[in-house]
């Protein structure tokens, strides 16, 4: 429909504004009876009068030759009359002007719509477009709600004359406001509505939906503009259907057949949410089609779905048995509606309406007849069997009328006030110009001059909402979320459960009361799910199914070492270095700091063993020093014996450096001290073995080895063997010294505090040198094992070096295969075991003789045994 606000000059009276509506829906052609000051009523989508000739393109069973009345839309008429009444009674808005309106009807016909528009650029009572003669109306602004099939005709025509156009119906998606400066939209555009629906889908986690449009709606626009946005936010579509006109002789049967196939697929789809985009007549058509194909094709009762509809679609009560059936399939429907609010005084205005007092309101009688099932004598809709209307019936208890102000009505109310305030601003500017000597006749104002004032209009309406336009000429307003509740008697109510704000998608953009939501009985009042696949729980990742939309996937466990903390994660993520995945792989746990401490049972046990062996070595050393003059102590170089015992004592003590939190000093001393002390120990053993061999060889007559027997050779062997190892350690410390480090990767559940060797080649070089000394000592002792027992401890040295080499040969693979504190424990164990082997195998027999067989520790016994 189109409301045309026009300027008219009445002689002797103040200027008058005449308004006319061109309605894209077929309504009874009615006019107001004009007076000096014209006040009338708006015709909204109130009546459908049709014949098979006029509406042959309508699906069968929806419209018939009998009029179809929608009483709820009478509110649109009343809101306009109410707004005009308020403006005319308010001396602060248009003090010297009177606002009125008039009605035209297009019968949902493009030709009649265009003719009605042309009528308003013609002289009054003559159809001569663009020609001025006789009484001329000065068109100032157009208020429109035309069907999308006819809309472009109206827009293009009035845009030629730059007449401001206020749209309170569904804006056509092809309209670009930046290219139509005369266009003002009282309703958020299609993009904003779709974004509001997207907020709902994201809020309820509905990612698997269907899309269905009415006839005349551009599916291509949605695919190009909105489909990428929906997909970007994880929404995919189970189906996308658009109703289209069908040509041909047998179009009716083909239309029903095609719709029945589409409807069967819609109801059989796994998507529980259907987005239905269209306008009021599309909802009416859908209801009629569903009812008709159920009767014709004996289809089962429709499956419960969550219907989400755009702003201009709503359920209505019709005076038609076909349309008013099975409204329960839309129980729980959600609509993103134009924001509305209650208008102060409107309910009282409605209740005061009576046929006798509402002069000029020709629609009130038809509404009255439908409401009270009576007829006025002149009514063309009356039934001969109905009683006559008295006009004294009361409306206060009438429940079929939409009491709360709908989005359509609210938009009309705001549009009328926007025009009034813009006219007020323009008239005030002209008044100031007149005071300055510029005499201008208000009739000479051109429509394009109102654009500036409309774009900058800003006011608070009676409901307290601020009304203003943005730079594109669109009303700055949000959307209401409406939940529709139906009842078995085919009645329904709308419940406002939330609202959306026209801003970027965010959690704050949508406010909704989920506890007030009502769902279809199929869902047992539990929030429905609409997913192609079940959610992948934390610990799993999504893997898309080949050839299906991205919302359809299988769930696979996360790979080892990764987690997924939320549902439906496409990829599993590794934990930070200082965390590790839990068993379920759905969260990260801080790693435990791992090192061999004295509080640890393993560390405590090794420390006790090291101390015990240190004490044992000290006891042996004390015993040998106490019996230093006995033959068994003097044998094989007493100084080497002391040096060997002291070095073994340090070996046991230095093993304690490996226990406790690694520090800079301990890391520098650990390996280097161990390497040098062990080099001293093995060098002493090598020197002792060589001393035995040289002593035996020196006893042969004429032997030249006597000059090599003495302390200098032994000292040289010990010093040279130790200095080489010392040189290796000095180079090691000077180039790549060991340092404290944190190993995040060796152990999954812990961060290992360890001493980094700095240079692995230097570390293995020092071990290799120790291995060389050990093997050399073993070989020398092995060849000297059969020398006379009185002077020979080579047999014990051979066995001790066999133990020593066995320990360190097994150390290398064990060390490389362990991690964390156990690696350190292996090295400590190897140090203790090899040192204990040397101490036990070499000194245990001597200690036995000193303590328990002192009679053998005499020179005479040694000489006697020798001979």
- CATH homologous superfamily (4th level) name of the largest domain: Response regulator
Straight-line distance between termini: 139 Å
Q: In the CATH hierarchy, what is the class of the largest domain?
A: Alpha Beta
What is the CA-atom radius of gyration, in angstroms? 51 Å
Structural class: alpha/beta
What's the β-strand tally? 30
Strand proportion = 5-15%
- Report the CATH architecture of the largest domain: 3-Layer(aba) Sandwich
Low-confidence stretches: 1-67, 174-178, 435-440
Please give the order of strands in the largest beta sheet: 11-10-12-13-14-19-20-21
Number of helices: 20
Total of domains: 4
Mean pLDDT: 78
Mind summarizing the main beta sheet? 8 strands, mixed
Helix content: 40-55%
Overall body shape = rod-shaped
**Per CATH, what is the topology of the largest domain?**
Rossmann fold
Structure description:
- By secondary structure, the chain is of the alpha/beta class.
- The chain has 4 domains: 2-189 and 343-468, Response regulator (Rossmann fold); 192-340 and 479-523, Rossmann fold; 540-590, no CATH class; 601-866, Rhodopsin 7-helix transmembrane proteins (Rhopdopsin 7-helix transmembrane proteins, Up-down Bundle), CATH 1.20.1070.
- Helix content is 40%, strand content 15%.
- It is built from 20 helices and 30 strands.
- The strands form 9 sheets. An 8-stranded mixed β-sheet has the order 11-10-12-13-14-19-20-21.
- Helix 12 packs antiparallel against helix 14 and helix 15 (664-698) packs antiparallel against helix 16 (711-735).
- The longest helix is centred in the C-terminal third of the chain and has 35 residues, at 664-698.
- The radius of gyration is 51 Å and the shape is rod-shaped.
- The protein starts with a strand and ends with a helix.
- The model is unreliable at 1-67, 174-178 and 435-440 (pLDDT under 50).
């Amino acid at each position: 429909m189109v409301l045309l606000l026009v300027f008219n000059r009445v002689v002797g009276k103040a200027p008058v504004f005449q308004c006319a509506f061109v309605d894209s829906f077929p309504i009874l052609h009615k006019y107001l009876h004009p007076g000096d000051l014209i006040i009338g009523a708006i015709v909204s989508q109130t009546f459908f009068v049709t014949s098979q000739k006029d509406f042959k393109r309508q699906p069968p069973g929806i419209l018939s030759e009998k009029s179809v009345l929608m009483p709820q839309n009478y509110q649109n008429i009343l809101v306009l009359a109410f707004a005009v009444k308020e403006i005319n009674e308010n001396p602060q808005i248009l003090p010297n002007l009177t606002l009125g309106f008039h009605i035209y009807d297009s019968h949902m016909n493009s030709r009649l719509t265009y003719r009605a528009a042309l009528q308003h650029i013609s002289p009054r009572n003559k159809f001569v477009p663009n020609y001025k003669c006789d009484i001329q109306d000065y068109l100032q602004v157009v208020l429109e709600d035309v069907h999308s099939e006819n809309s472009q005709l109206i827009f293009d025509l009035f845009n030629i004359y730059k007449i401001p156009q206020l749209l309170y119906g569904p804006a056509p998606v092809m309209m670009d406001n930046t290219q139509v400066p005369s266009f003002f939209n009282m309703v958020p555009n299609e993009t904003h509505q779709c974004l509001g629906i997207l907020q709902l889908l994201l809020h309820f986690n509905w990612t698997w939906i269907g899309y269905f449009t009415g006839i005349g709606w551009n599916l291509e626009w949605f695919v190009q503009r909105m489909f990428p946005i929906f997909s970007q936010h994880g929404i995919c579509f189970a189906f996308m259907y658009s109703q289209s006109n069908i040509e041909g002789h047998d179009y009716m049967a083909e239309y029903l057949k095609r719709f029945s196939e589409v409807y069967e697929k819609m109801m059989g789809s796994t998507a529980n949410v259907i987005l239905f985009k269209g306008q009021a007549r599309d909802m009416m058509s859908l209801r009629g089609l569903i009812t008709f194909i159920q009767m014709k094709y004996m289809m089962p009762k429709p499956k419960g779905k969550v219907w989400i509809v755009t702003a201009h679609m709503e359920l209505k009560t019709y005076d038609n048995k076909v349309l008013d059936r099975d409204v329960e399939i839309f129980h729980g429907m959600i609509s993103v509606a134009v924001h509305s609010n209650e208008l102060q005084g409107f309910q009282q205005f409605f209740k005061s309406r009576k046929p006798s007092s509402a002069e000029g309101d020709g629609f009130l009688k038809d509404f009255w007849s439908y409401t009270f099932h009576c007829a006025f004598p002149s009514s063309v809709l009356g039934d001969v069997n109905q009683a006559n209307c008295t006009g004294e019936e009361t409306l206060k208890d009438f429940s079929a009328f939409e009491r709360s102000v709908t989005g359509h009505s609210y938009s009309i109310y705001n549009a009328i006030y926007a025009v009034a305030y813009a006219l007020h601003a323009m008239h005030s500017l002209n008044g100031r110009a007149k005071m300055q000597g510029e005499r201008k006749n208000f009739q000479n104002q051109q429509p394009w001059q109102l654009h500036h004032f409309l774009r900058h209009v800003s006011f608070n309406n009676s409901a307290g909402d601020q009304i203003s336009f943005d730079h594109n000429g669109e009303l700055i307003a949000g959307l209401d979320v409406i939940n529709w509740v139906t009842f078995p008697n085919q009645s329904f109510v709308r419940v406002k459960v939330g609202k959306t704000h026209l801003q970027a998608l965010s959690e704050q953009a949508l406010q909704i009361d989920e506890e007030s939501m009502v769902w279809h009985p199929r869902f047992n009042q539990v929030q429905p799910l609409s997913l192609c696949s079940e959610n992948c729980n934390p610990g799993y990742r999504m893997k898309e199914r080949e050839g299906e939309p991205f919302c359809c996937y299988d769930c696979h466990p996360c790979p080892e070492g990764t987690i997924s903390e939320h549902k439906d994660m496409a990829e599993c993520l590794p934990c930070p270095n200082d965390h590790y995945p839990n068993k379920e792989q759905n969260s990260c746990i801080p790693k435990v700091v791992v090192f061999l401490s004295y509080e640890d049972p393993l560390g405590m046990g090794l420390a006790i063993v090291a101390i015990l062996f240190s004490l044992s070595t000290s006891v042996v050393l004390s015993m040998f020093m106490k019996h230093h003059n006995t033959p068994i102590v003097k044998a094989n170089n007493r100084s080497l014996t002391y040096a060997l015992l002291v070095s073994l004592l340090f070996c046991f003590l230095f093993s304690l450096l490996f226990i406790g939190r690694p520090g800079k000093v301990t890391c520098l001393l650990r390996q280097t001290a161990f390497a040098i002390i062990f080099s001293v120990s093995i060098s002493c053993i090598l020197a002792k073995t060589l001393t035995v061999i040289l002593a035996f060889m020196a006893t042969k007559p004429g032997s030249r080895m006597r000059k090599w027997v003495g302390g200098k050779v032994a000292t040289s062997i010990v010093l040279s063997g130790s200095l080489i190892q010392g040189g290796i350690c000095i180079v090691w410390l000077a180039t790549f010294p060991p340092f404290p480090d944190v190993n995040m990767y060796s152990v999954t559940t812990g961060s290992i505090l360890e001493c980094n060797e700095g240079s692995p080649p230097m570390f293995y070089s020092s071990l290799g040198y120790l291995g060389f000394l050990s093997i050399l000592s073993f070989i020398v002792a092995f060849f000297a094992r059969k020398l006379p027992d009185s002077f020979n401890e080579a047999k014990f040295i051979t066995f001790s070096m066999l133990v020593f080499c066995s320990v360190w040969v097994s150390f290398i693979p064990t060390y490389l295969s362990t991690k964390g504190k156990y690696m350190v424990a292996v090295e400590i164990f190897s140090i203790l075991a090899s040192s204990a082997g040397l101490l036990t195998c070499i000194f245990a027999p001597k200690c036995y003789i000193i303590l328990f067989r002192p009679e053998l520790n005499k020179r005479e016994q040694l000489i006697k045994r020798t001979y």
